[in-house]
Amino acid sequence: MTEQATGAHPQPRPRSGGQQSAPVEHVTGAQSLIRSLEEVGADTVFGIPGGAILPAYDPLMDSTRVRHVLVRHEQGAGHAATGYAQATGRVGVCMATSGPGATNLVTPIADAHMDSVPLVAITGQVASKSIGTDAFQEADIVGITMPITKHNFLVTKAEDIPRVIAQAFHIASTGRPGPVLVDIAKDALQAKTTFSWPPTMDLPGYRPVTKPHAKQIREAAKLITSAKRPVLYVGGGVLKGQATAELKVLAELTGAPVTTTLMALGAFPDSHPLHVGMPGMHGAVSAVTALQKADLIVALGARFDDRVTGKLDSFAPYAKIVHADIDPAEIGKNRAADVPIVGDAREVIADLVQAVQREHSEGHQGDYSAWWNDLNRWRETYPLGYDQPEDGSLSPQQVIERIGRLAPEGTVFAAGVGQHQMWAAHFIQYDKPATWLNSGGAGTMGYAVPAAMGAKAGRPGQTVWAIDGDGCFQMTNQELTTCALNNIPIKVAIINNGALGMVRQWQTLFYNQRYSNTVLHSGPDDVNPQAKGTRVPDFVKLSEAMGCVGLRCERPEDLDKVIEEANSINDRPVVVDFIVHEDAMVWPMVAAGTSNDEIMAARDVRPDFGDNEDD
After folding, report:
1. For 173-185, what is each residue's pLDDT tens digit?
2. Is residue 26 within a helix (H) or strand (E), and if so which, with residue range?
3. Residue 502 bears catalytic tag
4. Is residue 578 flagged as an active site residue?
5. Active-site residue among 19, 25, 136, 146?
6. What pTM does this model have?
7. Considering 150, 186, 293, 456, which one is annotated as catalytic?
8. Which of the following is catalytic: 502, 546, 585, 589?
9. Residue 55 and residue 27: Cα distance in Å, rounded?
10. Choosing from 4, 11, 46, 74, which is the catalytic residue?
11. Which whole number is the average pLDDT over 466-486?
12. Could you confirm whether 419 is annotated as catalytic?
């Protein structure tokens, strides 16, 4: 992988056999582990010590090349490693002990797996002779995580540690990125061994295809130049492949509209005139409809997931499909491809540019003028927007929009999951890669605060805002203590509507406004009516108790002043409790299990497309 525009440095790679090794060092397995992490270029590890991993923490104390960040919960370590990886393009690293320490990593590992994030999770394991005996704090973490890792290892011999670490980083960061687990028995960490670098890697059968097939590229170019209603459907793979510059060239060369998924925001500038928005369940009307009415969809690093397609058998009924992905298992999984292309996003798009240029030189150039007339009409008729609450309270959309407008250049935004995530996707403008971090595939509540912490640790020169809900925030806010004690001054916006907002929205729309267990500020059956409307917990006091600056905003007229105050504080974490209206909803919306043709632009507002398109 090459250096990102974000300022990331390429991850050093171990070399395969036939190389002259460095002098052999006599070390323990634990020392070998830390030396291996240093050699693969890991500069930050998020973790918590415990019995089985404790031998590794002793030499870690002496390392001048690896910074350890002591988190408050292993889930925080995993999400921080993910945020670090998403913000920098490097492999994120987390570490935990055996048993509950390891199982607390399962959620962030699954999250990284769904979103193709390069992650190496290192766990301690009970001594090798005790494995399988239900020893104290034993868990079969290799078995538990097998379905949610790209690969995993159980290491019982100290001499295997350098090779396994080298292989883990290589697997995590090449091909389709993903999480790799390395489980190391305690006696392997304690045993005497030798260390030399680089190790000889042994990965038979692991040969990710990066170069696309020339014939498929030519076929795709012919379809692009002959189509009347093409769409470039861009997924997170374009960011993972660091192919954003190539994408911009292809889009401007063809003149085709571009949609960027939730995982791809920033891969193509939101402000670019060819950008028609984010598709999906809560996507822009113009983006959802563009895919539905297209006669050609060029899917680049996207996987046709259910949140984009809606009811699959009614998705894009008129479209031929060009599907390019580095993972051949994704092609044809959900939607059959007319032209399948296996390869790295950067190489695929670069080759497509050349092939389209050849088509143009031969006089074959697409005419999309009628298509753009339709697209522009949809953009103008059904733009993203929101209503201000009639009672004068804060609109959550306005809060997020102003945070985006007032943020310094290059700010990184990490979102939790739910309404605030969708509003952050809609009302903040993303023009650069690696400025939008979120849990897309797994939809993990509690992601934002630790992910922002990891992003700030990896890119300390950037402002990092976590956009969180009051429900999400209460799952992982203990990591604010980690931030305060480790000089990681993130900023957190709590969009506080006193409820589990997205679930409440579904209850409003589909469950006759029966708000079962979604109100966060009152007890069961309102046994304590005095608690209604009170702030339990008081997020300002809670934040201050964890070493942060706590602010609160309740009135629109105070909004900019409070945000600017938060932006001005850079020596400590800042948390702002924005008290917003509880009934705000996310629009547009396609109800789960329905066709994208059923999109609602707002409540009780179904778009009228005229049905005059040449279908």
Report:
1. 999 999 999 999 9
2. strand 25-28
3. yes
4. no
5. 136
6. 0.93
7. 186
8. 502
9. 12
10. 74
11. 97
12. no
